[in-house]
Amino acid sequence: MTLLLRVCQSILVACLMVTAATAEPVSINRGTGLGYVFNHRGNCYLIVPDHVRQGATRLSLSTSAPSSIGDAEIFRTYAPGMDLALGIVTSGLSQRCNDRFDALRTDLQPILDSTENAQLVRVDAGGLELRDDMVITSFDFESITARPASRDLGAEIYQGSSGGILRAGGTLIGMAVQSQGIDDAFFLRADEIAARLGRLLDTGPATIVRDPAMPAPIEAAGLCPAGTFAPEEVTCNLEPLSPELSCSNLAKGGVAAFPPSDTPPRLILDLPGDKALPLRIVALGSSGMAPSATMPKGILIEISSTNGTPRWRRFASGDMPPTGRFEAPNGAAPYATQVAITLQSSWDPALPTALDCLSLQ
User: Fold this and answer.
1) Which CATH number is 233-360 given?
2) Do residues 339 and 301 touch, judged by C-beta distance below 8 A?
3) SUPFAM superfamilies this protein is in (predicted)?
């Protein structure tokens, strides 16, 4: 019995180790470089060495076999201070964007102090995943230097390897950003990357430095899908940025904007008719109106199905990506007489928050 238990425990540990090693890179622009995708609060993000994008803001992506093809829009660069750019995956990788942002937050110091063995993981444009044994030669608080375990690999390993990920025992520990000759490669530490991204992606106030090299905001047209019904009235808890940008505009297809405030804007939508209606999707859109305004980020949607005093319950929540399109589906299609939308945070708390449209289905 004891032997059987030990065998079962060994199998369980082995399975957990395999599960932990899920971090995989994606090929960028047909093999010109690599990146890494992860999920955070309902959105799929891409991190990539800034030099890999070569100034482009739109990138094509492909995974290892079975290949999924997608694309991403870069909306933040950390260069020149750090060779890193952040984008939002806009299509194609919904089934492969499974790694969570929290996986990057692992304290790497115990791992780096206890092992020198690692593995460089890459994927070529044909979907073949390549793994090369590496030896960690040095590290500091921001970076890791490693060389191939086999000197026979030479410089070949580094052609197109920027953005490849370094794993140790199944844990993502770094992203390749440059080769220092034939014998060494330079990696950004994953926990340092997470520290930089966390200040931007986590809900709540964040200091965002605008990047003048990033693309202009998209036009408001097409931000929201056609709705099956419109709210009779939209009211809110804050005065608008100006009378012309009142939240009541949203009931008529207009734009609303709110000044920076410690109080999150909360919109109350009264649905048409006297009876509760089934609600499947709430969609919001924002062009940001940059540089004079920004987009919402954290969004909470609640519904009430009562007449009279509302009894709020959660419908959906998540982050609006920098593309400005947010759709919150609820497969249960609960009945509602009112909808409450709280804009919990924004992409730049120092600026007014703009909302171009909303739709209900």
Assistant:
1) 2.60.120.260
2) yes
3) Trypsin-like serine proteases
- The span from the CA of 110 to the CA of 172, in Å, is 13
What backbone torsions phi and psi does residue 256 show, to the nearest 5 degrees? -125, 150
Radius of gyration of the chain (CA): 23
Q: Where, residue-wise, is CATH 2.40.10.10 in the chain? A: 103-189
Query: Is the backbone of residue 105 left (phi > 0), alpha (psi -120 to 50) or beta?
Result: alpha
CATH superfamily of 103-189: Trypsin-like serine proteases (2.40.10.10)
Burial of 274 (0-12, 13-18, 19+ CB in 10 A): exposed
Backbone angles phi, psi at 185, to 5 degrees: -125, 150
pTM of the model: 0.73
Tens digits of residue pLDDT in 272-319? 988 999 999 999 999 876 568 899 999 999 999 998 899 999 999 999
